[in-house]
Amino acid sequence: MPEGHSVHRIARQFDRNIVGREVSASSPQGRFAEGAAVIDGREAIEVRAVGKQMFLAFDGDVWLRVHLGMYGAWDFAGEIEIDPTIASANGRMGQTNQRGTDLDAVYDAAGENSLSSIGAPRKTRVHVRMSEQTRGLEGADDTEWPPPVVGQVRLRLLTAVTSADLRGPTACELQTPDDVQATIAKLGPDPLVDDLAEGEERFVAAVRRKPTPIGLLLMDQSVVSGIGNVYRAELLYRALLDPHTPGKLVPEELVRQLWRDWSRLLVIGVETGQMMTMDDLDPEAYRRAMASRDDRHWVYHRAGLPCRVCGTEIVLEEMAARKLYWCPNCQK
């Protein structure tokens, strides 16, 4: 499932390439035909990302809410202009948690967003898939415009030079402004949306009043927005916190540390496109980490392997039907 950094990156691409333009909307699959007819011909005027959800506003007070869920993806094609806040003018994207390093783009064989996952830092005719599995779209033809529909496209948004195809979302619906506010009000704080200090207080209060294990609370989007399975495991390890600890028993300062660490890791994820959770890597180690998830995380996806710090075997267990990775020695 796309985590918060992916949705913020997608929203930035909409801001650069769709907002401010009249949009033709269609539902090639047919499942969103009525909604597409409502927004067809309208101008996209604003985009917001909150946690794992994106909201795209059109003139006439019509909003599109999209939650990609487990399998959703946006495919962009045509003239794509990269957001300058996540790429430098020379075609490189620098890491955010290392000093004095500017590395060429590298690609992740596992399919997670790479440094160049959303196109080059210039206008260029490309096909770009934006989801947690970011790879080229098979069957795409760069020479044909509009691009042919490939697969089950729930919604196609088309401007004069750019198209955005939505596949497999959990939610794709139209909302009124009041609906949008009600949806967002149910979500926990997002460090890239909410005031950091106020968000911290909301997060601390929510965690400290619940007997629910902290490993579940971090995945509860009403407690904090944007954290998924990868960030959950990594945040808990970085805090050396047992995932089974009831929220109300986690020391307040440790809860605050979790919020501040999430705020930091989310920014890194947005700027690099990677869920990079290891710090202080030398340039070569950083390049390996960007190219391979196996070198990027402390515990995630490392079941049965020795802990990078203590050597204890990393445990994999089910927690609320999701895979949880943790070190029973470091996190106790």
From TrEMBL:
Which metal ions or organic cofactors does this protein require, according to UniProt? Zn(2+)
Sequence ranges assigned to domain Formamidopyrimidine-DNA glycosylase catalytic in this UniProt record:
2-91
A single GO BP term for this record reads: base-excision repair
This protein's UniProt keywords: DNA damage, DNA repair, DNA-binding, Endonuclease, Glycosidase, Hydrolase, Lyase, Metal-binding, Multifunctional enzyme, Nuclease, Zinc, Zinc-finger
**Entry EC number(s):** 4.2.99.18
Species source reads: Microbacterium laevaniformans
In terms of Pfam families, this protein maps to:
Fapy_DNA_glyco, H2TH, zf-FPG_IleRS
Q: Which family does it belong to?
A: Belongs to the FPG family.
Domain of life per record? Bacteria
User: PROSITE patterns of this UniProt entry?
Assistant: FPG_CAT, ZF_FPG_2
**MF terms in GO:** class I DNA-(apurinic or apyrimidinic site) endonuclease activity; damaged DNA binding; oxidized pyrimidine nucleobase lesion DNA N-glycosylase activity; zinc ion binding
Name the encoding gene, please. Answer: nei1_2
User: Residue limits of the FPG-type domain?
Assistant: 298-332
Top-rank EC class of the record's enzyme: lyase
Protein's recorded name? DNA-(apurinic or apyrimidinic site) lyase
